Amino acid sequence: MKAAVYRGGSRIAVDDVPVPSIGPGELLIRVESCGICHTDLKKIEHNLLPPPRIFGHETAGLIVAAGEGVNGFRPGQRAAVFHHIPCGDCFYCSRKLYAQCPTYKKVGVTAGFEPAGGGFAQYIRVMDWIARRGVVAIPDHVSFEEASFIEPLNTCVKAVAIAGPQPGDFVLIQGQGPIGLLFTMLMKLRGVRLAVTDTIPERLALARKFGAEEAWNPREVNVVDSMKQFAAGRGADFVISATSVPGLVNEALAASRPGARILLFAQTSHQERLELSGADICVGERTLFGSYSADIDLQAESARLVFSGEIPVQELISHRLPLNEIERGFALALHPDAQSLKIIVQPQRIF
Asked: Structural domain of residue 282, as residue ranges?
């Protein structure tokens, strides 16, 4: 089979690799759609993990084989896959901090080499603990590319649940890439007063379409002043930093009111460093917190939001690329333009 293999030095090569073998309790899935995620891009761009690996974890496809003892799934079914699932029994699971569970930190989906998700390959092996609790059947009316949003949407649903915004709260979302726009849609369902920022006008227009009352280009307006004016002179009750652009955490602090909550969502690399005023948090009584990865308790709700169309994920897709154009997809995701948004890789297409 063909796979986009990370070879180190920020290099990806489309190579021939063996189709994974499966054992008891495992699934073999033919990958039809895999979204490009910035978490994987950072691992590749900054060489954070040793090669070789096959990344890609926003995956949906067709089950082609099921190992002995698999219950609930059979060949011919369409499915979306989560690559991390917690044990459910440890200290962190008892506190619903699933992403900190040692079992959760193990990747249970692979296309070969050290498990890394495998979605940028034509077939993946789904290990037994993922097959038991981390596979979601796709209804007939939902496309593979729509289903590949279940995992990233789950991460956003989790963050919003932790944050707990109330109807009427003034919310600022920094960044309107695919994740930022998912947050915009989810926040609108919560009935908040919503302002967003981005430097690409086309993304600001989409944000308005999805419910943002205010959409500002920080190169053209003073975001801090604009947010305070929008939010009754006080500033935001809640800020989501959905991009890791340097300096935006300080902007979030300045644009928020005393007692506000500020969520860091995009700061996923240990190489990213923050410099900020401790007094803005201590004296201002603000809460700075993080949310990372998905929540198994929210799998059904995330799938429902996609399957029902309540979150119209199809409108976020800008490019559908064959596997051999994956480097172009990475470049588009790393350096977005007016026409680029969510990039979907279709591994069965090879041109």
From this structure: 156-290
Task: Report d(CA 87, CA 90) in Å as an integer.
Answer: 7
Q: Are residues 144 and 8 in the same domain?
A: yes
Domain containing residue 50: CATH number: 3.90.180.10
Q: Is the peptide bond before 52 cis (omega within 30 degrees of 0)?
A: yes
Residue 297 placed within a domain: no
Tens-digit pLDDT profile for residues 239-276:
999 998 888 999 999 999 999 999 999 987 777 788 88
pLDDT at 277: 87
Q: In 3-state terms, what secondary structure has residue 79?
A: strand
Same domain, 37 and 117: yes
- In angstroms, the CA 269 to CA 263 distance is 16
Q: Are residues 284 and 181 in the same domain?
A: yes
Amino acid letter, 253: L
* Cα separation, 284 vs 135, whole angstroms: 44
**What pTM was computed for the model?**
0.96
